[in-house]
Amino acid sequence: MKKNIVMMALTTIALISINSCKREFRIKTPYVDGDSSKAYLKVVDAAPFFRQSTGKPDTFNIFLNNTKVSGTPISYNGQFPQFVNNISPNITTTYIAVQPGLTQIKLSAPGKVTPDSIPITNLTENLIAGRKYTFLITDSLNSPRDSSRIFIQDPYIAPLEGYVNLRFINAVYNDTLGKTVDLFSYAKNTTILTKFKPGNVSAFQLIGYNIQTPDTFYVTRTLGIGVPATTPLSQRLILAKLAFTLSSGTSGNAGGAPQRTYTLFYKGDGNLTSGVKARSLGIYAH
C-alpha cells in the first residue's frame, strides 16, 4: 500500500439504543492486503433471536472443514476475528485466511468437555482465492439461500485518498411489513442510500470524508410518496444511529485522509427501542 495511508485506531464500539447515548466507532489502522493465494472470511453474529430460530444455544464456536478456528465462543453482536489489531495491521486481523475451494463452515455450541458438543448448522461454500467474504448471521440462518442468511462477497478495492468505502446491510429482524429504511449522513445532511428492505445489501461506494468533520450515520424510515427528499433529519423517523469518527495518525500523518473500508449493518429487533436486542446500527472494518 502507499506510504501515505493514514493510521487509524479502534477505541470504542458500544451497543446501545437510540434513546440513550450514541454508539461511537473510531479507527486509525493502516491496511495491508492479503495473499492472493488464500480466500478470506469474516463472521458476524447479527441474529437477535438465534436461540428461537435454531432451537440451539446462541453462543457458538466456528469450525472450518472440521477444524475449530474461533478463539472463544461468540454470541450476538460478536464477530470473528473479533477486532482490528492496531499493533499488527494485517488483513488477518479482520479476516481469517482460508484455503480456497469447497469449505464447510460449521457453527457448534461448546460443551463442558468438547468445543463441538452441539452442532447448530453447517454450510458449504466455494471460496475463491483472492476474494473476501462475510458471513453475517441472521435469524434466517437455516435458509438455503446465501442472500437470506447472509453470506456475501466483499468486492472492494482500496479507497482513494480523501475517501472511505462504505456498504450498508439491512439485517434487522421483525420490521414493519412493507416498510423500508434509508441511511442518512449528518455531515453531508443528506440520504446516501434509500429504500432498503430487510436482507438488502448495497455495493461498496466511495464516500468523501473531511477528517475535521465527524459524522453520524442515521437509519431512518424511508420518506413517503410526495415527501421532499430535502426533508431535514429533525422531521424524519430515526430508528438507529452511530457516531463515526476518523482521525489522522500521529507519526507524520497529520492532515492525511482516511482510506479504509467499512460495513454498516442495521440489526436487532425492529420493534424494540431498548435492551441488548433493540434495533441498532453496527459496524465492522475490512
Describe this structure in words.
By secondary structure, the chain is mainly beta. It has helices at about 50-55, 145-150; strands at about 25, 40-45, 60-65, 65-70, 80, 95-100, 100-110, 120-125, 130-135, 150-155, 165-170, 180-185, 190-195, 205-210, 215-220, 240-245, 260-265, 280-285. A 5-stranded mixed β-sheet has the order 1-16-15-12-13, with no helix packed on it. Strands 2, 5, 6, 9 and 10 form a 5-stranded mixed β-sheet that branches. The chain has a 4-stranded antiparallel β-sheet with strand order 4-3-7-8, with no helix packed on it. Mean pLDDT is about 80; it is low at about 1-20, about 25-30, about 85-90 and about 250-255.
Average pLDDT, all residues? 80
User: How many distinct beta strands?
Assistant: 18
Shape: globular
Strand order of the largest sheet: 1-16-15-12-13
Structural class from helices and strands? mainly beta
Gyration radius, to the nearest Å?
19 Å
End-to-end Cα distance, whole Å, is 15 Å
- Low-pLDDT runs: 1-22, 25-31, 84-89, 248-257
Q: Helix amount, in percent?
A: under 10%
What amount of the residues lies in strands? Answer: 35-45%
Order of helices and strands: EEHEEEEEEEHEEEEEEEEE
Largest sheet: 5 strands, mixed
Distinct helical segment count: 2
Q: What's the number of structural domains?
A: 2
